[in-house]
Design brief:
The protein has one domain (2-181, 189-407): Growth Hormone, Chain: A (Up-down Bundle), CATH 1.20.1250.20. Helices cover 82% and strands 0% of the residues. It is built from 19 helices and no strands. The longest helix has 31 residues, at 326-356.
Length: 410
C-alpha cells in the first residue's frame, strides 16, 4: 500500500507542477501580449465555458468505460502540444484562444478526474490517504512555483512547454503502475440514472450551490492575483514567491486533515464551511493589502481555505454519492460550482477591475464565499443530521438505479 501511495503522490506532484508552469501563468502571458483586463477576462470566460462542457463529458466517459488512467495520460499529453502552440504563438489572438480553450477542455479537467480516480480506488478498498498524497502535490507546487518564477524571469516563457512535457512523462509513468477501478457498472451504466440520482440528492445539490457562490470569490482572486502584484510593482518572481507560500501553507493542513477530522468528530460539512470562510478572509487580505509583502502574507491563508476545502469536498462526495457515479458527480460539481461561476466572475471581474482597479474589485467579490458558508450553516439538516440525509440520498439513488435496471435487464 505504501507503494500505491507513493505513486499517487507522484501523480499529484507531477500534475500540480504541470499546472504551475502552464495555466497559472496564462494571465501573465496575456499581459505580456498586451491584452487589456477586459480581454483577459473574456478569454478566461471562454476557457471556463469550455470547461462547462468538458468536465461532465470526461466524468461521464470515465464512469462509462472505466479507463481513468488512459484518459488522464492522453489528455495531459494533448494539452502539452497545445501549450507549445500557445507559447510560440507570438500573441496571435486566434491561436492563443484556440490553445487556451483547448487546454481547458483537455488538461484542466484532469485534476478533478485524478481526484475521482483516487476516490474510486479508496472506495474499492485500496488504502490511500487522499489528503496526505495531495500534500505531496502542494509541496511540488510550492517548489515549482519558486523555481519556475525565477527561471521565467531569466530565460522567458519559452522553456515552459518543455518543462510541462517532461513532467507529463513522469505523470504517465506513475499512472502506468496503478490499477484500474473495479468495473462494477460498465455494461449497465446509465447517464440518465446518474443524473436522476444527483438531482434527488439534497446534500449534493446544497453543496454545489454553496460551491458556486464560493467560486465567485476564488475565481477573481486567482485570475487577477498576478495583476494585483504587478499593480503594486511586482513581477514574475513575486508571483512565483506568492504561489510558493500559498502551496507551502497547504502542506501541514493536508497532512493532518484526516487526523483532525477523526479527532474532533466534526461532520465533513463543518470543514467545508471553514474553508469557505477562510477563502473570503484570504480575498479581503489581498484586496486591502497596501504592498507586496501583505499580498504574500494574505496568500498564506490558502492553508486554511483551499487545503481544508479540497479534501473536505472529496470526503463529502464519497459520503453522499453512489460509487458508480462518483466521477460524474465530481465533474458536475466542478462544472456548476467552478466553471459556470468562472464564466460569470472572469468577465465581470475584468470589467470592474478596469473601472475600479483589481483590489477594489476583490473587495466586492469576497462576500460571495461568506454567502456560501452561510448557506451551509443555515442548512441544519446537513450539518447536524448529515449521516441520516446521506443515507436517505443513497437509498433514493439506489431506487433510481433499480428502476433503471428493471427497464434494461442487460
Amino acid at each position: 500500500m505504501a507503494a500505491l501511495n507513493r505513486r499517487v503522490v507522484l501523480i499529484q506532484g507531477a500534475f500540480t507542477a504541470m499546472q504551475c508552469v502552464s495555466t497559472v501563468y496564462f494571465v501573465q502571458a496575456f499581459q505580456r501580449f498586451g491584452y487589456s483586463n477586459l480581454l483577459i477576462g473574456t478569454i478566461m470566460m471562454g476557457t471556463s465555458l469550455m470547461s462547462l462542457f468538458a468536465q461532465p463529458f470526461w466524468g461521464y466517459v470515465a464512469d462509462k468505460v472505466v479507463r481513468d488512467r488512459q484518459i488522464i495520460g492522453l489528455c495531459c499529453t494533448a494539452g502539452g502540444v497545445l501549450y507549445l502552440g500557445f507559447i510560440f504563438s507570438g500573441g496571435f489572438k486566434p491561436l492563443v484562444i484556440i490553445a487556451a480553450v483547448g487546454m481547458y477542455a483537455l488538461f484542466i479537467p484532469m485534476m478533478t478526474l485524478i481526484d475521482s480516480f483516487v476516490a474510486k480506488l479508496i472506495v474499492d478498498g485500496h488504502r490511500i490517504n487522499y489528503s496526505a498524497t495531495r500534500a505531496g502535490g502542494s509541496v511540488s507546487y510550492a517548489l515549482t512555483a519558486a523555481l519556475f518564477g525565477v527561471a521565467v524571469s531569466r530565460f522567458g516563457m519559452t522553456i515552459a512547454p518543455f518543462i510541462y512535457l517532461a513532467l507529463c512523462a513522469v505523470l504517465c509513468g506513475a499512472l502506468w503502475g496503478l490499477p484500474d477501478p473495479r468495473n462494477h457498472t460498465r455494461a449497465r451504466f446509465s447517464a440518465g440514472a446518474g443524473l436522476r440520482s444527483l438531482r434527488g440528492n439534497r446534500a449534493y445539490l446544497l453543496f454545489v450551490a454553496a460551491y458556486f457562490l464560493t467560486s465567485l470569490t476564488t475565481v477573481p482572486v486567482n485570475t487577477y492575483y498576478s495583476v494585483v502584484l504587478f499593480t503594486l510593482g511586482g513581477d514574475e518572481r513575486h508571483v512565483g514567491l506568492g504561489l510558493f507560500f500559498q502551496a507551502l501553507s497547504e502542506v501541514p493542513v493536508m497532512l493532518s486533515f484526516d487526523w483532525i477530522r477523526k479527532k474532533t468528530g466534526l461532520p465533513t460539512a463543518f470543514f467545508l464551511v471553514l474553508g469557505m470562510v477562510f477563502f473570503a478572509l484570504k480575498n479581503f487580505c489581498i484586496a486591502f493589502a497596501p504592498n507586496i509583502t501583505f499580498v504574500l502574507l494574505g496568500s498564506m491563508l490558502q492553508g486554511l481555505s483551499f487545503a481544508v476545502f479540497l479534501p473536505a469536498t472529496v470526503s463529502f462526495l464519497m459520503e453522499v454519492v453512489n460509487r458508480e457515479y462518483l466521477a460524474t458527480a465530481q465533474m458536475a460539481a466542478v462544472t456548476i460550482g467552478s466553471s459556470l461561476a468562472a464564466i460569470i466572475a472572469n468577465p465581470a471581474g475584468g470589467a470592474i477591475a478596469d473601472v475600479l482597479g483589481p483590489q477594489n474589485m476583490l473587495k466586492i467579490t469576497g462576500f460571495f464565499a461568506l454567502a456560501g458558508a452561510l448557506m451551509m450553516v443555515l442548512s441544519q439538516r446537513v450539518l447536524q443530521t448529515g449521516s441520516r440525509v446521506f443515507l436517505q440520498d443513497a437509498k433514493s439513488a439506489l431506487s433510481f438505479k433499480e428502476a433503471d435496471d428493471a427497464k434494461d435487464p442487460a
